[in-house]
Specification:
Blueprint (H helix, E strand, L loop, with lengths): L1 H17 L3 H11 L4 H16 L1 H11 L9 H16 L5 H12 L6 H15 L10 H8 L4 H11 L1 H10 L6 E5 L6 H10 L3 E4 L6 E5 L8 H4 L3 E3 L2 H10 L6 E4 L6 H9 L5 E6 L2 H14 L4 E5 L12 E7 L25 H13 L2 E11 L8 H10 L3 E3 L14 E4 L1 H4 L4 E8 L2
Parallel strand pairs: 5-6, 5-8, 6-7, 8-9
Antiparallel strand pairs: 1-3, 1-4, 2-3, 9-12, 10-12, 11-12
Helix pairs in contact: 1-3, 1-5, 3-5, 4-5, 5-6, 5-7, 6-7, 9-10, 13-14, 16-17
């Protein structure tokens, strides 16, 4: 197992030095490796675990050492992070193994003192019963416990209150479900489930939306026969609900302005029974190809993908019955899938509301009289969500807020909704619905 730990430390160090996307880095590295499935699962668990608990692990290092984490070189820091993570969060790893393997890695450092330093740190953590630093106040304590930057803890507490803040923090950790939308145009749900069972993939049906299921599977869904036959595409419950709010009908013309990689486009086409026209756009040609490939695999002939800048009005596009603006955003609702998002500088997000509004404003020009416009993001931020929706209504008197629809149950009469993960077990998400009056 020492090679798996060495491999993980190397990946984490590469991520620190090059700011790569964690999922792409891990997937490509494992694909090129010769590890067996068991070792790959261990590497994935340790890699993502350290990444999502990074702030907590660094707080432990800072408390135990006079040499704070940011003063250590990347490799030593990641040896300590992986060691502490195994001690605190991986019950399957004996304490002795976590310490011994970390010391072995440290001995390969050119500084001979590093091994003793790592050994002393990890054993001191054990002597302290693996207790986490408490923080100077409640908010700092929450920041350390849930490995969430203090600025984000304060933001969520101030914008949504203490309970929602705590819910968001607790659901930001751990493995997110693999939820799929079944493509009943290719075969019944029951026949798709039979294919999954043949590949030893178990599942649990999702009640809130039609023809959806959570897969219980540790491998790559792309390797299943059901996936190859186009029987499903991966899509979180929140995205299903977004498409349900749009409420596309057979024969509609629908524009999906920020489509790639295409999940919502595919669900829209399926809700229309593939009868009508779904125009899907992205700014980048390579991402447009992803939409085309997905539609082809699923057998969706109503989908047409093209390059388009959503901020610029294009007169050649048709007037549409439904327009979806799933805008680029900070991604604070999908931290459990992309934990590196929470470690970004909040200044990186400051320009997003203006970009989002510009896209929404331009996209509204394509909506027919009586047509529907849905604005959505995968973030939990008032500035990117409610404030953009409020500004749009203020500056567009020809639009009015519209009820989200019956699929939302007790929230059906609401015209906008911030979905927090504990509500449906979904990602964090925001949906606002408008109708053009004239």
């Amino acid at each position: 197992m020492s090679n798996t730990r060495k491999f993980t430390v190397r990946l984490l160090t590469k991520l620190d030095e090059n700011s790569s996307y964690s999922n792409i880095l891990l997937d490509q590295s494992l694909l090129r490796s010769d590890f067996d499935d068991r070792d790959k699962r261990f590497i994935s668990a340790l890699f993502y675990g350290v990444l999502e608990r990074q702030l907590t692990l660094d707080a432990v290092i800072a408390e135990l050492s006079k040499n704070p984490a940011n003063k250590l070189n990347h490799t030593v820091r990641n040896i300590l992070r992986t060691g502490i993570y195994q001690l605190k969060y991986m019950d399957s790893v004996p304490d002795s193994a976590a310490v011994d393997e970390a010391v072995k890695l440290a001995k390969k450092n050119r500084n001979p003192a590093v091994a003793g330093f790592v050994n002393g740190m990890l054993r001191e953590f054990i002597r302290r019963d693996k207790a986490l630093p408490q923080g100077r106040d409640r908010l700092e304590g929450l920041s350390i416990e849930y490995s969430c930057p203090l600025w984000l803890v304060k933001k969520w507490r101030d914008e949504y209150g203490e309970k929602v803040c705590t819910d968001l923090l607790s659901t930001s950790l751990g493995q997110a479900p693999t939820t799929v939308k079944l493509n009943t145009l290719k075969g019944s749900a029951e026949s798709t489930f039979e294919l999954l069972l043949k590949d030893k993939v178990t599942f649990e049906r999702v009640g809130i939306v039609k023809d959806a299921a959570n897969l219980c599977f540790s491998g790559a869904v792309e390797q299943t026969e059901a996936y190859r036959q186009g029987r499903f595409h991966v899509q979180d419950i929140s995205s299903h609900l977004c498409c349900a709010a749009l409420d596309p009908r057979e024969g509609d013309t629908v524009l999906d302005m920020c489509s790639a990689p295409g999940g919502k486009t595919f669900t829209i086409a399926q809700l229309m029974n593939d009868k009508g026209s779904v125009l899907a756009f992205d700014l980048h040609p390579n991402r447009v190809r992803l939409i085309e490939q997905g539609a082809e695999r699923l057998g969706l002939t109503s989908v047409k993908a093209a390059v388009n800048n959503a901020k610029v009005f294009y007169a050649a596009l048709p007037a549409a019955d439904r327009v979806l603006v799933d805008a680029p955003c900070s991604g604070l609702g999908v931290i459990r899938r992309k934990p590196e998002i929470k470690y970004k500088d909040p200044k990186d997000f400051e320009r997003l509301p203006e970009i989002q509004y510009e896209i929404l404003d331009t996209s509204s020009s394509y909506v027919k009289s009586g047509g529907t416009l849905v604005y959505s993001t995968c973030t939990v931020s008032r500035a990117e969500n409610d404030e953009v929706a409020d500004r749009f209504l203020k500056e567009h008197e020809d639009f009015e807020a519209a009820p989200l629809g019956s699929v939302f149950g007790e929230d059906s009469d609401k015209t906008r909704l911030t979905i927090t993960p504990e509500k449906y077990g979904s990602d964090g998400f925001f949906i606002a619905k408008f109708v053009r009056r004239r």
